[in-house]
Design a protein that fits this description.
This protein is mainly alpha-helical. Helices cover 72% and strands 5% of the residues. The strands form four sheets. The chain has a two-stranded antiparallel sheet. It has a two-stranded antiparallel ribbon with strand order 3-8.
Length: 633
């Protein structure tokens, strides 16, 4: 019994931090209707700055901790002023969510550049010696965690319920348009909510720092844990955020103690998926919610530039010829391997574009299907000497089976709930990749995967693999171009523009969304298998959640709703670190910055910019297809 109580206390400590970060998610969602995935990043920054002030500069805690919190809040407000706030008036909530993922990536990249990849540990505030109570020991830092969380909860309640400022925030949460008509400065309130959320994250970060190992990517763990906690408890409910955080902390610690640390995250994510099926809005309904009887305005997502057909096909043929000649010019194996990786990722990006760009369905778990395909084909090839072609087909079959199970959840969800479900799925696959050691090799990866071979040919060199993947990319691209120009493509665009209107016109939205999803899954599985055969190795970090977010960045930077735009993003983010190896440490920061800049200033992506330039040189105006998204609360 004492052991259970000890573990439960540890769970409550962890859960308190999750609850505090979840409160930040809930605050911003209630005011803006958007999810801020950068929340955990600010917790990391505050913790790192606190470490620098206390350990490196030798400041006393009484000065270092408040200075770290204030510095983080100022940085967060300035960043939000030029990114998050203007994005709310230009982008759909789904795209705002992905923009904040870009901000999180920027923060991770900044941390990597400034503090490096080594772990840091901040000394406890009240010494190392724990306190004992009847056989139960409690670290002194736990009391700081409980106290800080309680302070955050009480202060937030007093602000929202008892002050004029809180009334303004509640008015923005209820109906932003009506609040604006009543003289409330909605953008200022939005900035205030972001600042308050950053303050909560910063306080959480400096308090938890002594009890965890800090690395440049720890902010992603904070973000995911807080997001999952808020989703379980109720994203629009402050009590739900607290209950969800405490519940998640308890489940994680108890699972680690009584089952396995390898599967503790998987169990939490399975609980989340069950909650999404049973009650998508969480266990507790928010007391203040956006009105459900009206729709928010339809926000333009930009224009997808298209070349006229008489220029498009000749240029496409020229591009294929140039691509076929590249191996005769590029002799460096590193660059050649980078081109192969970019071409493989382009395969899954085409599927992601069908799902996100054409059907408007957000997916943050695309790399999960790459993992399923890669591990299945690699395992069969190693252990059963199955031919690579049959192994790939088996990987696709397993991926489609998993997709059909996941579709039970995803086809019922929209917007941020859909993004959350796909993110949870990707994280679940990450946990399985680490936990199923006999199949995946665990954290060390699956070693000894043979090179791809078919019809008596072995594609063991980067050059041979390049031509194989290039041929597959061209075939897939031609098939998808024909599909999106048919009635199938028009139905997907109608669903993206307004799902309710599409259904009213007789379009079977479930069938078309499922078809787009399965296309995306098939191409991701194929890409994951080729990825494994090319490297002769597959590890969890190669096809993890970070890869999913990177794929989204590649697609947005290259250009959505174009099919070929993802190639530009893949080439840019894959080759730049190879060509400029000394600058590779800046890749993460550059990836996030490019994603944010693309959303705000280059909505058509690199592809759209190239098309406009070619059209101007040819004296022909590019065709522009308007993309809109019906943004619903």
């Amino acid at each position: 019994m004492l052991e259970f109580i000890q573990i439960a206390i540890g769970g409550l400590v962890v859960g308190s931090i999750y609850a505090a970060i979840a409160l930040g998610f809930s605050l911003i969602f209630r005011v803006t209707g958007a999810i801020n995935l950068s929340q955990g990043g600010f917790a990391l920054i505050a913790a790192m700055i606190g470490y620098t002030f206390t350990v490196t500069f030798g400041w006393p805690l009484i000065a270092a901790i408040p200075a770290a919190v204030v510095t983080t809040v100022i940085a967060g407000v300035v960043l939000a002023r030029f990114t998050f706030v203007p994005a709310l008036s230009r982008l759909s909530n789904a795209n705002v969510l992905m923009l904040t993922a870009g901000i999180l990536t920027m923060i991770e990249g900044f941390s990597l550049v400034v503090w490096g990849s080594q772990p840091y540990a901040t000394p406890p505030f009240s010494g190392e010696q724990p306190l004992g109570f009847g056989g139960i020991t409690i670290p002194t830092q736990a009391f700081w965690v409980f106290g800080a969380t309680a302070l955050i909860i009480v202060a937030l309640w007093l602000l929202i319920a008892k002050t004029k400022l809180g009334k303004g925030l509640r008015a923005c949460a209820e109906n932003p348009a009506a609040a604006s008509l009543m003289g409330i400065d909605v953008p200022r309130m939005t900035l205030l909510s972001f600042g308050l959320a950053t303050l909560i994250a910063a306080m959480s970060g400096v308090i938890v720092a002594p009890s965890t190992s800090l690395q440049f990517d720890t902010g992603r763990l904070f973000t995911i844990s807080g997001f999952v906690a808020a989703a379980i408890g109720g994203i629009a409910s402050f009590p739900g955020a607290v209950i969800g955080g405490l519940f998640l902390g308890l489940v994680t610690q108890l699972s680690t103690a009584y089952i396995s640390s390898l599967f503790s995250s998987a169990i939490s994510l399975l609980i989340l998926l069950v909650v999404l099926i049973w009650r998508p809005q969480g266990l507790i309904q928010g007391g203040v919610a956006r009105r459900q009887d009206t729709r928010d305005e339809v926000k333009a997502a930009g224009h997808a530039a298209k070349l006229p057909d008489h220029l498009g096909w000749p240029l496409a043929a020229l591009a294929v010829v140039v691509a076929a000649l590249i191996p005769f010019v590029v002799t460096d194996n590193g660059i050649m391997s980078g081109l192969v990786i970019a071409a493989i990722l382009f395969m899954t990006l085409m599927g992601l574009d069908v799902l996100m760009g054409y059907a408007g369905q957000v997916s943050l778990g695309q790399a999960g299907f790459m993992a399923i395909g890669g591990y299945t084909s690699g395992y069969l090839a190693i252990n059963y000497d199955t031919s690579p072609v049959l192994s790939i087909l088996a990987g696709i079959a397993v991926s489609i089976a998993c997709a059909l199970v996941l579709s039970v959840v995803t086809l019922r969800l929209r917007g941020l709930y859909l993004a959350l479900a796909t993110l949870a799925f990707g994280l679940l696959i990450d946990s399985c990749a680490v936990g199923f050691i006999d199949i995946t090799g665990g954290p060390s990866g699956l070693v000894g995967i043979p090179s791809f071979s078919a019809l008596g040919f072995t594609f063991a060199s980067p050059r041979a693999m390049y031509y194989l993947v290039l041929a597959l990319d061209v075939i897939i691209l031609l098939g998808l171009v024909g599909a999106v120009r048919s009635g199938f493509g028009r139905a997907l665009k109608a669903i993206r523009s307004d799902q309710m209107a599409a259904a009213a016109l007789g379009i079977n939205t479930v069938r078309y969304k499922l078809a787009a999803f399965l296309i995306s899954v098939t191409l991701a599985s194929l890409a994951g298998s080729l990825y494994a055969f090319f490297f002769n190795f597959l590890a969890p970090e190669m096809v993890g959640t970070s890869r999913s977010l990177e794929l989204v960045a590649m697609l947005i930077i290259g250009g959505e709703s174009t099919l070929v735009g993802g190639l530009f993003g893949a080439l840019l983010l894959t080759l730049l670190p190879v060509i400029f190896a000394p600058l590779a440490v800046y890749k993460t920061f550059a990836s996030g910055a490019l994603l944010v800049a693309s959303f705000l200033h280059l909505p058509q992506g690199i592809y759209g910019g190239v098309i406009q330039m070619i059209s101007r040189l040819g004296g022909v105006a590019p065709r522009e297809v308007v993309k809109t998204e019906a943004v619903k609360s």
